[in-house]
Amino acid sequence: MLSSKRILLIISGGIAAYKSLELIRLLKKQGADVTPVLTKAAQEFVTPLSVSALAGEKAYTDLFDLTDEAEMGHIQLSRVADLVVVAPATADIMGKMAQGRADDLASTLLLATDTSVMIAPAMNVRMWEHPATQRNLQTLRSDGVTFVGPNDGDMACGEFGPGRMAEPAEILEAITATLSDGPLKGKHIVVTSGPTHEPIDPVRYIANRSSGAQGSAIANALMALGARVTFVTGPADAPMPEGASVVPVQTAAEMMNAVQQALPADAAVFAAAVADWRVASASGSKIKKDNGKLPSLEFAENQDILASVSQMKQGRPELVVGFAAETDDVLANATAKRARKGCDWIVANDVSPETGIMGGSENAVTLISADSAEEWPRMSKTETARKLAAQIALTLGENT
Ligand code: CTP
What we know:
CATH architecture of the largest domain: 3-Layer(aba) Sandwich
CATH class of the largest domain: Alpha Beta
Structural class: alpha/beta
Strand order of the largest sheet: 12-11-8-13-16-17-19-20
Low-confidence stretches: none
CATH topology of the largest domain: Rossmann fold
Strand content: 15-25%
Number of helices: 14
Number of strands: 21
Distance between the termini: 24 Å
Shape: globular
Largest sheet: 8 strands, mixed
Bound molecules: cytidine-5'-triphosphate
Radius of gyration: 25 Å
Oligomer: single chain
């Protein structure tokens, strides 16, 4: 997704520097080239050797290094990147950037660059909230620097609040969204995926066979075209789409809530196999055997997330896509389902056991819209996802 993109990654000296190792790994996995630069303080937390080994490139540390200057001067180093990322960005480096100081390699590169700069602040909560840092933040914003995080949370120093560095996956997502030049650049798409687990009691639940493979593939395909994806997923087996903003949930009710929180969006793709029913009054304690007496479960219907988003009076995504997993009369049932729920498209598939689609790696779908039904040949879930993402890009593009 980031192939042929070059990131100049500046690591400044905070405890969150260890997370920059994971960021390098994720960036490399997406095909990016990473040129790492460490401040002196950063080297107290991570070594140039580990950074360089992961990046597969030399780690730069010194402003006055004759060998480096002979190979690639610091001005050139600051210009070859598609994006300069500072992660973690300490209060100190933010201060230097805001003042335009250049007393080491990292700050000099930041002053000399003509490339966009994104920073992921990480510091103690009091330092973050200090008027000086907040002033620097405003200055940097007006200089065009973009920010990812900081997040709220427990901090290494034992305090709680804003100041914790954004997770590497979130930083990757922000980088991907910034660098993408695909047709979905600037579009936000919500994808639901996986099964839901509806509790019976604290140890038992009702679930279904969805692996989440199709949902993950759709999220990846949309991101490859430049979309920013919020991925709301039940407990799935498929790997999470790296670079998406992942919201893990268990139940249908939690999924509904997470989708509402994730809106507004330009499009929403509901690939989750949401449980239609939950146990009406799940037991708070484990249900015990009772001398051969069988327990009876009463069900309540879950709210239909797809229908409720499709029928929103205000703020409805421009394009709402549902799935119809059917075993009989696939086309007729799916066509009726599209009209009933009010979504724009239904991706219909036959999940009869003999098709091997549920939990398998292939899919054979029909894309149903208000005025057409397009049958796609059986292909991998990845290819199905690519084709669907391309159609979504075409439609959102037409409407802008
Ligand atoms: N869906 C949803 N919320 C629910 C149930 C389903 O968002 N509570 C969405 C699914 O993500 C899918 C679509 O609705 O996109 C179709 O789901 P499906 O289970 O096939 O259809 P149902 O509405 O359950 O109809 P039926 O059980 O009669 O087939």
